Amino acid sequence: MQLRVDQVEKSFGSGRSRKLVLDRISFTVNTGEFVALVGSSGSGKSTMMRLVAGLDRPTAGVISIDGTPVRGPGSDRGMVFQKYSLYPWLTAAQNVAFGMELQGLNRREIRERTSYFLEVVGLADAARRLPRELSGGMQQRVAIARALAAQPRVLLLDEPFGALDLQIRESMQEFMHDLWQRTGLTALLITHDLEEALLLAREVHILAPNPGRIVRSVAVDLDRGDLRHLRLSPQFLELREELASCLRGMEPALTPAP
Amino acid sequence: MARAKDLLHHPWVLGLTGVLVVLLIWTLVTSLRLVDPLFLPSPAAVLAAGRAQAGQGLLWADLLASVGRVLGGFALSAAVALPLGIAMGTSTVINRLLEPLMGLIRYMPAPAFIPLLIIYFGLGELPKILLIFIGTLFFNTLMIMDAVKFVPRELVETALTLGGRTSQVLLRVITPCIAPQVIDAYRINMAAAWNLVIVAELVAANEGLGKRISLAQRFLRTDEIFLGLIVIGLIGLVIDLGFRLVMRRACAWAN
Q1: Mean pLDDT, all residues of chain A
Q2: Contact A89/B164, CB-based, under 8 Å?
Q3: Which ipTM score applies to this complex?
């Protein structure tokens, strides 16, 4: 499988009020890869994700999967939103089963896959609980299980841990890394958190704001044996600092130069 | 001591106290003859009127007639408002087409339609049921439409990225999501249905609680008027509690 984003542009409005949000974005995600787009607010990263998901159409350029252009949302691209995406009237298990039910899988398969994926995200015990009875981190894990259970070819993660507390965010990053290693999933992550991108993705694209454009792409080749050690390792910190200064360089100055 | 405090905190206790206080004042005022009994009959007199009407079977016939009209008209309104409200909440085209029209008709007082309905459909059940239908349809529809507009976008888009079709989004995401607001809208607008049935019966009917009140006025039977009002209030209360019960049972997730 190859997800290909080719010279994609997106602008909102028309005429004089027309605003270019994404400027000639190109990148690819192949089976088994974990790719991240990092950018501050205004870099159009969420817009980019909506285009890949098929929830919006690009103004120019093509997004395709194995050569077939994306024309709308579909189950080949499973999405995990930042928050509020679990169905509050369904239990955790029913939420996980939801996509498979929409696709018309048979009951037995749904039941088996539901318990398998709840197990994968470590929430087998919470199967019968309603979303409001789950913590924020657990809710996001259910959302990830639900997306995975629908068998997408690529998982789209739109700031999936952005609404969580720092500590939970870190444990969720470790969970996500672990999940990627165990299941060999293919993922596109969008985040404003450089550290998160470097921890999880093998390829990181840095988006500059106004209009959003890729200014740097880095292959991240680090030893990910232990994420906790990795966070503190010199190479990691060096790379993070280098890219952070790249990101900072693009921010409009907060105070005028003396 | 602690138990008495707990008792006081039970939601029903204070409410019941309020009702009892009014009953007490009513009893006192009438037993001391502070007001002419013609204007303010005693609770006992109202109770006696109730016994008499129940004995003659009048009370039950009236109840059946009024409740039947309310339920018929309101069921029709609820059944039409649900798909219409969802359509208006999800489709920009339908919304732009219908919202100004509904905004206009909504401000026409439903009782003002009575003369027209009588001309069209005579004095039978149909005009009364239609009056309730007209008088509640627009409120039901607009409240459901608003509920649809507040369905979080993520819930709809998640279904789409899971491979859901439009019909599945409507039936499996939007409908369950708005269920609590729909039940609440029905509960609130049911009160309007009761107002309308009484108005319709005051104007033209052979039986019904409104008709009974109007007859009682002709014979200066204030005890029967009081009886009618209290019965109407009690039925309204029962229906309201019924809706709340349905809500608590069916939409536990929303509480």
Answers
A1: 91
A2: no
A3: 0.89
pLDDT of B3 reads 67
Locate the chain B residue with the closest alpha carbon to A133.
B253
Q: Alpha helix (H) ranges present in chain A?
A: 45-53, 92-102, 107-120, 136-149, 166-183, 194-200, 227-232, 234-250
pLDDT level of residue B103 (50, 70, 90 thresholds): confident
pTM for the structure as a whole: 0.86
How many CB atoms lie under 10 A from the CB of residue A251? 11
Which whole-number Å values give the CA distances from A49 to A25, A63, A187, A201, B161, in the listed order? 12, 11, 12, 16, 12
Q: Following CA atoms B99, B104, B109, B115 in sequence, which dihedral angle do they give, to the nearest 10 degrees?
A: -110
- Chain B contact for A73, CB < 8 A? yes
Q: Is A220 helix (H, G, I), strand (E, B) or coil?
A: coil
Give the gap in angstroms from C-alpha A153 to the nearest C-alpha of chain B. Answer: 12
Contacts of B162 in chain A (CB under 8 A): 75, 78, 98-99, 102-103, 146-147, 150
What residues of chain A lie within 8 A of the CB of B172, using their CB?
98, 101-102
> Mean pLDDT across the stretch B112-135?
93
